[in-house]
Write a structure and sequence with these properties.
Bound molecules: pyridoxal-5'-phosphate
CATH architecture of the domain at 71-325: 3-Layer(aba) Sandwich
CATH superfamily of the domain at 71-325: Type I PLP-dependent aspartate aminotransferase-like (Major domain)
Helix content: 25-40%
Distance between the termini: 19 Å
Strand content: 5-15%
Order of helices and strands: HEEEHHEHEEHEHEHEEHHHEEHEH
Structural class: alpha/beta
Shape: globular
């Protein structure tokens, strides 16, 4: 039985005629019977075209942090639309939004707004290269940084078997269509393996422009950095004059108001934010500190975009971050997220399933296997089949995590204690169904 009710199926049929595979982004196609068409969202819930309600833990791959249609964001965006959105001049709203972001992430000296995470990481890499005059970018396996060529190697969509030896990793392309030459300036490393990073720097450190890292693996189950890993990257970049870039697109404003830099106490040179920055409205930012920003000030390194800093985007950012700065939404996430992590772990343990609930209350994932992974390679034995059966059974019962075995759950702050109780009940029933009990 597919996930679509009759009206949803009708809409998806129309979608398939107008949109390639019925979707606007590749990963949204869950198959012809299972791809949902949603009509609206409200607080902790989304509703499909049949009016079926789901408690939402997908939240658009993480952006919706306050809840769907949060009143403060709706009001700010509505006012911004009415006032004209795109001038390609600095606007007052943009200035106050930037000040609000700086208040939330105090290590940032200055920033630029962009529109998506992809755009932010693309500009951050160019800034690192332009500033250092070097070519090589280091990225970590299982890290996803967006859809541009330089970062589409050894992502969570590249099979673990394609990554090569841990001692000589092979950058494994995620897609056809990347020019051959790109791989010559990309190095991939196992996440959480500081010795591997040290070996690479010893070989090629003076050619490395920058290291880009998801400080916590927002695209692989919420795996956390080992103690000393981020500090070690900081030290290597300082020693070799390379730029440390945190991709905070998923962690930013979610695992702490000040993101991973606050949560783990390591300060990068540059960081990219998107997702939770706008509670679902497309907006991103690249923040930085120190002399690397001279690269942009001089004008010699290109960063531009018609819609960068547009009124809707920055209004959403100011309203969202303003709410987060009250401390209340993340306190709520901490409470509901912890209850979900602990509750699901207990249900799994009671049934004798070997499992680990990884991550932090604002972003957590599940590994079904005997020993907890510390990197993407370590997930190879994950019982993805069981995870998919479990999550599909949950979705049929009206609770919506993403069924991708690597994707974390993203709770939003509109979740009630009752929603958490319902989720745990559904998790339990669905697990029994998946286990055939
Ligand atoms: C860590 C990380 N960086 C960058 C991106 C790209 O962001 P966008 O989809 O807004 O281009 C994503 C998207 O999921 C992400 O998870």
């Amino acid at each position: 039985m597919g996930l679509q009710g009759p009206k949803t199926a009708e809409w998806f049929e129309r979608a398939k005629h107008a949109l390639v595979n019925g979707v606007s982004s590749g990963w949204r196609h869950w198959g012809d019977d299972d791809t949902l068409v949603l009509a609206r969202g409200d607080g902790a819930y989304v509703y499909d075209s049949d009016g079926k309600q789901y408690i939402d833990y997908h939240n658009g791959f993480g952006p919706v942090i306050l809840g769907h249609g949060h009143p403060a964001v709706v009001e700010a965006v509505t006012k911004a639309v009415a006032a004209g959105t795109t001038f390609a001049f600095t606007q007052e709203r943009e200035v106050s939004a930037a000040e609000t972001v700086k208040a939330a992430v105090p290590w940032i000296e200055q920033l630029r707004f962009t529109n998506t995470g992809t755009e932010a990481t693309m500009h951050a890499l160019r800034l690192a290269r332009g500033y250092t005059g070097r070519d090589i970018i280091v990225k970590f396996e299982g890290n996803y940084h967006g859809a541009h060529d330089y970062v589409l190697y050894s992502t969570p969509s590249s099979p673990v078997e394609a990554l090569g030896s841990r001692f000589r990793p092979v950058p494994a392309p995620t897609t056809s269509g990347i020019p051959d030459g790109v791989v010559t300036v990309v190095r991939t490393l196992p996440y959480n393996d500081l010795e591997a990073a040290e070996r690479l720097f010893a070989d090629e450190g003076r050619r490395i422009a920058g290291v880009i890292v998801e400080p916590m693996l927002g695209n692989v189950m919420g795996i956390q950095p080992r103690e000393g890993f981020l500090e070690g990257l900081r030290r290597l970049c300082d020693t070799y004059g390379s730029i440390l870039i945190f991709d905070e697109v998923k962690t930013g404003f979610r695992i702490a108001v000040g993101g991973a830099a606050e949560a783990y106490g390591v300060i990068p040179d540059v960081a990219c934010f998107a997702k939770a920055l706008g509670n679902g409205v497309p907006v991103a930012a690249i923040g930085g500190r120190g002399p690397v920003l001279d690269g942009w000030r001089d004008g010699g390194i290109a960063q531009m975009g018609t819609y960068c800093g547009n009124g809707v985007a920055v209004a959403a950012a100011e309203a969202t971050v303003g709410e987060l700065l009250t401390g209340k939404p993340l306190a709520r996430l901490e409470r509901v997220g912890r209850a979900l992590m602990e509750g699901t772990a207990k249900i799994l343990a009671d049934r004798g399933v070997d499992a680990f609930v990884l991550g932090k209350p604002g972003m957590f994932g599940f590994y079904f296997g005997e020993s907890a992974p510390h990197d993407y390679r370590g997930t190879a034995d994950h019982d993805a089949d069981l995870y998919e059966k479990l999550t599909m059974a949950m979705i049929r019962r009206g609770v919506l995590p993403h069924p991708d075995a690597l994707e974390p759950w993203f709770p939003n702050a509109a979740l009630s204690d009752e929603d958490v109780a319902t989720t745990l009940m559904v998790f339990e029933e669905s697990l029994d169904e998946a286990l055939g009990r």
